[in-house]
Write a structure and sequence with these properties.
1092 residues; Leucine-rich Repeat Variant; 63% helix; 0% strand; TBCD; ARM-like
Length: 1092
């Protein structure tokens, strides 16, 4: 049941620095083969969640790119046409700058742009003279970078008029040129619109441009009224939002005019409303007299008079006594508030319930800004509005309610951050925020609930919070430990850390903080199974943790969460099993999730009872299974119920329970395991049922059950699901404790793998399980009192070795690889067991004959050159076990010493990682192993098979390595005593393989391709000067050309034809090869004639 998911580990630094800087240097050195998008894009993506890790390196990452971009721009503006090379260069540089900005943010990247006085003309010339080039769709990155650059330059502290040319026309004035460029880019739908909005906002925030702000406002209103595109309207509102945020209160007067035009763009209009209304508190417009005709001017002046007399409550902490000098709430109600302000607040409250998250965020910030300028009594009213909106049912909310909850949490968080939640409202806020934290559907609600509590503990005094600190800490701890999402767990952990540090009054705060810090809760499994038991040692938190797991986690929609929750429950209960025993089960619930969680929880508690020796309580856990209705196995997701029920049986059944007859209060374990689990279509359920029966077989002899299994397996109408399940369960029984029909089981498994046997299984999954089961039987019995006879062991070993020949292919691909990988693991396991027990096994040669042992190692090596990466990876892992295992190295001596052990150790050293799935690393090491005579035949066959692969990552490195090895071989044996191979010997082995498999296309096609590869590697040409070599060449030609007219497989014909054409170029075989060419030219297949 250990099926828990884990989150990605957190990065601790810029681990890709060296690789990144090397690629960047190559790119800046005009290495056009390196594209920054593909070279560094993936690296930067890994730091999206932790961009601050790049800060120490930004200088050397960004400055060279900016300087190169500036140099290229300086070059291209001198030419009327931009060549393709410079175009590509500009696009790559701009795209790289966009990646920087995307990862770290525009504000962090902009300061690296050159911003001297001399840079302004250069940037302006590029934007204007290359307007046609910049208007292309693929130039979006350049537009973005250009506007971003200009937005920084236009902040220089000099009057822009000083850069105007003498007698320049109006449109050629520097300010107007910048305005024109910004407005032009404002119409684009892409990212360049944002940098253009920043450019225009910074332009009109300049003191020498304040007089032009009314003109900009008139232009904006006119464009909106004229029906500007949606993208342009968004850009206009972005300008307004930036102006209001950074431009001061004076700009609010004019910008309010077009905000009231009822712009139909929720997010940006909300931002503008926020900034406009929050600026009313201290209005001192520099052009106040000239703007007095605006309809809102009197209202703003009146509102400003009252707010100027009001304390800035954002700096006053309730409960500290600093608010004693403030007017009472009653007097604040007497402050005249304009009616339009009510409409503004109403719009913002509606905004926090919007379907768009960004709108809710902006509205929440706006509420806090406006409330900071209102009397305290009105802030309380806003809190009351949010407190009455959320629904009390926090576990299952409709989407609309989730938006309301999220918006309410965000608003309260912003209000709390500025200290605008009064002491009288803290209790209510803490109450319903803690409810929001248990919303299991919407992650944003849970995250924002932690944000509220974080803000509360920062802004409120300890005296006010002290009655609620334990409740707050419990809520944050349970969320940081048991939430599904990593960002929510981190948010709760951060809020708890803030509460511990700010208040110093949370029970065991520092100790618990060590167990639930940011990194501890970043991995879900660690939070559930490591941190939770540590927190449970403190009594104040133990019961709340159990309640949360029972009421929330075990009902979670994610099965992995329920599994982890049950394991966490078992760990918590283990702290004090006497008082925290099994909780009331919910096995009769109609909710499948709840039933599944209940079964898992009982199983984990039963496991805890078992570990601590509480057998009677464990029996009670087993009996609770009787409350589970049989119909639960057939419901939707009944597979989860069946799997959990089998797991519960495995953990709770005992010798006493096995002897109980099924009755009221006693579950029928045979029905659960035999009738449901083992016959279920879901493989996970079969595995759980097999594990349960394995436990039972250690308590009683299951020989009758095994005989029934064998009859079902060998029945003519046996289905693949039945055979798959039975072949697995036959291997997990406790044969070391009881007989359990072991002999019958072994015969059944061997028969399922023997092709000529009537009981041979056609199911690839069943054959895979048969091999694994035979390996498990040997591991359990060899060396025990129930050791196998030598004949049975040899049969098992030989049968398992036959799995190396399974190359079954169906619509799923090479499914035979499943059997071959199972064989690899089985051979390594059996070999280690048999050598470990060598001193107990006599005579050892009868158990493991020498030829079988050498055949096993050769089979592993053959799979090591397999064309499939995953098969090679398993083969490499198992070969390392065979070479370096202490059991084998210490006992495989004498005749049983691994042949060529020294060469294998040099090729695959123990202290070096062995990436067998990487062909470039592996294949150069393989051909030299052909010098070991014990492996030549089988290893060469594996090489031949892989050379026919369409996988270039496997074929090309192996082909190069084989040709290099063959060219290094002597043509004939230099000495009879040496074991080193010769080129003639290589050709003899190839010809022998071909003659033995003439009718097998699966062998002949790869063989012919291998000969073609050897010709291309100039290997065969070396044989032309040797008489014996010429004979081999003629034999190879005849192998390819003879009977070609009778061949029907086009792929084989094509491979043979290539060999024949190759041999035309060899002098000793040219004339004979030409005759065979005529046969192919006149072949009855037109395609063959055409290809020839």
């Amino acid at each position: 049941m250990d099926d828990a998911a884990s989150d990605d580990l957190q990065l601790s630094g810029f681990g890709h620095e060296e690789e990144f800087m090397n690629v960047l240097k190559s790119f800046l050195d005009e290495n056009t083969q390196i594209n920054p998008l593909t070279a560094v894009g993936n690296d930067l993506d890994e730091y999206q969640e932790q961009p601050y890790l790049l800060d120490p390196f930004l200088n050397k990452m960004v400055e060279p790119v900016v300087e190169e971009l500036k140099n290229v721009i300086r070059i291209v503006i001198e030419y009327e046409e931009i060549n393709e090379q410079k175009t590509t260069r500009l696009y790559q540089l701009a795209t790289l700058m966009y990646w920087y900005s995307k990862t770290r943010g525009m504000k962090s990247i902009v300061p690296f742009f050159p911003h001297t006085v001399q840079d302004l003309p250069l940037a302006l010339r590029f934007a204007e003279e290359k307007e046609v080039f910049l208007s292309k769709s693929e130039s979006w990155g350049l537009r973005y970078v250009t506007a971003m650059w200009l937005s920084l330059i236009c902040m220089i502290p000099f009057d822009l008029a000083r850069f105007d040319e003498p007698d320049a026309q109006f449109e050629r004035l520097t300010a107007n040129r910048l305005d024109s460029i910004g407005k032009r880019y404002l119409t684009y739908p892409g990212i360049e619109r944002e940098s253009a909005a920043m450019l225009l906002a910074r332009l009109y925030m300049r003191t020498d441009m304040l007089a032009q702000v009314p003109n900009h406002i008139d232009w904006a209103v006119k464009r909106i009224q004229e029906g500007a595109s949606t993208f342009e309207v968004i850009g206009i509102m972005q300008i307004a939002a930036i102006l209001m945020k950074a431009g001061g209160a004076g700009l609010s007067l004019g910008e309010r005019k077009f905000v009231d035009e009822k712009l139909n763009k929720r997010h940006d209009s909300t931002q503008v409303q926020n900034q406009v209304n929050s600026s009313f508190g201290n209005v001192r417009a520099p052009w106040e007299t000239t703007q007095s005709q605006h309809s809102e001017c009197a209202y703003i002046q009146l509102f400003g008079l009252h707010l100027d007399q009001k304390l800035d409550r954002a700096l006053v902490l309730p409960g500290t006594g600093a608010e004693a000098g403030c007017d009472s709430a009653d007097s604040e109600y007497n402050v005249p508030i304009p009616e339009s302000m009510e409409e503004v607040v109403e719009q913002l409250i509606a905004g926090v319930q919007d379907q768009d998250t960004s709108v809710r965020y902006s509205s929440a910030k706006g509420i806090a800004r406006v409330a900071s300028r209102l009397p305290e009594a009105f802030s309380d009213e806003i809190v009351d509005v949010h407190g009455t909106n959320p629904d009390d049912n926090t576990l299952d909310l409709p989407p609309a309610a989730e938006m309301t909850w999220h918006g309410a949490c965000l608003s309260c968080a912003e209000l709390a951050r500025f200290g605008m939640i009064s002491a009288s409202r803290v209790k209510d806020v803490v109450g319903w925020i803690c409810k929001a934290g248990y919303n299991r559907n919407e992650t944003g609600v849970r995250d924002s609930a932690s944000y509220v509590l974080w803000a509360l503990v920062r802004a409120q005094s300890v005296e006010i919070l002290s009655p609620y600190l334990l409740e707050i800490s419990i809520r944050l701890i349970t969320t940081s430990l048991f939430d599904r999402e990593v960002h929510v767990r981190r948010a709760a952990s951060a809020a708890y850390q803030e509460a511990v540090g700010r208040t110093g009054a949370i029970p065991h705060g520092i100790d618990i903080l060590r167990a639930t810090d940011f990194y501890a809760v970043s991995i879900r499994r660690n939070a559930f199974l490591v941190a939770t038991p540590q927190v449970a040692t403190y009594e104040e938190y133990r019961r709340p943790l159990i309640v949360h797991i029972m009421d929330t986690t075990l009902k979670h929609w994610d099965p992995k969460m329920r599994a982890l929750g049950s394991q966490a429950l078992g760990a918590v209960c283990s702290v004090d099993l006497n008082t925290l025993g099994p909780q009331r089960p919910r096995l009769r619930s109609i909710d499948t999730n709840e039933v599944h969680g209940a079964l898992l929880s009982i199983a984990e508690v039963s496991k805890a009872f078992k570990d601590q020796g509480y057998e009677n309580e464990r029996l009670q856990c087993f009996k609770q299974l009787s409350a589970l209705p049989s119909a639960a196995f057939h419901k939707f997701r009944g597979d989860l119920i069946a799997e959990a029920a089998c797991y519960l049986v495995a953990e709770s059944i005992s010798l006493t329970a096995v002897g109980l007859a099924p009755a009221d209060g006693v579950p029928n374990w045979r029905y659960i395991i035999l009738d449901n689990g083992l016959k279920h279509q879901n493989e996970a359920v079969q595995i759980a049922a097999s594990s349960a029966l394995s436990v039972i077989s250690g308590l009683m002899d299951c020989g009758q059950e095994v005989q029934a299994f064998v009859r079902e397996f060998q029945a003519k109408n046996a289905g693949p699901i039945t055979q798959c399940s039975i072949s697995r369960v036959l291997g997990v029984l406790a044969y070391d404790k009881f007989d359990n029909g072991m002999g019958v089981a072994i015969e059944c498994l061997i028969g399922g793998l023997t092709k000529n046997n009537e009981t041979y299984s056609k199911s690839i999954e069943a054959r895979r399980n048969c091999i694994a089961s035979l390996s498990e039987i040997i591991a359990k019995t060899l060396g025990s009192l129930r050791a196998l006879p030598p004949l049975i062991f040899r049969r098992i070993y030989a049968t398992v070795l036959s799995g190396f020949e399974d190359y079954t292919v169906d619509q799923r691909g090479d499914v035979g690889s499943w059997v071959r990988m199972a064989t690899l693991r089985a051979i390594a396991s059996i070999s280690q067991v048999v050598f470990r027990n060598r001193n107990r096994i006599e005579p050892f040669g009868e158990y493991l004959p020498l030829d079988l042992w050498h055949q096993a190692i050769g089979g592993v090596l053959r799979q090591g050159v397999e064309r499939l990466d995953n098969v090679r990876a398993v083969a490499g892992e198992q070969l390392m076990h065979l070479i370096w295992s202490d059991d084998i190295r210490s006992h495989a001596s004498g005749l049983w010493e691994v042949p060529g052990l020294n060469q294998l150790e040099k090729a695959f050293p123990f202290d070096q990682s062995v990436p067998w799935n990487v062909g470039e690393w592996l294949f150069p090491r393989v051909p030299p192993l052909l010098d070991i005579s014990a492996y030549r035949k089988v290893l060469l066959l594996g090489i031949i098979t892989s050379l026919a692969s369409r996988n270039e990552s496997a074929q090309l490195p192996l082909a190069d390595a084989l040709c290099a090895y063959a060219n290094a071989l002597p043509i004939s044996h230099e000495s009879e005593t040496t074991d080193k191979w010769s080129l003639l010997g290589l050709m003899d082995s190839l010809l022998e393989t071909g003659r033995a498999n003439t009718s097998a296309n699966s062998i002949m096609i790869p063989l012919l391709k291998t000969i073609d590869i050897l010709f291309g590697g100039e290997v065969l040409g070396r044989l032309c000067s040797n008489d014996d070599g010429v004979k081999r060449l003629i034999s190879a030609l005849e192998l390819a050309g003879k009977g070609a007219e009778r061949l029907k497989n086009v792929e084989r014909i094509t491979a043979a034809m290539k060999v024949v054409v190759d041999f035309v170029a060899l002098a000793p075989t040219g004339s004979l090869a030409s005759k065979y060419v005529e046969l192919f030219l006149g072949h009855r297949f037109p395609r063959v004639s055409f290809l020839n």
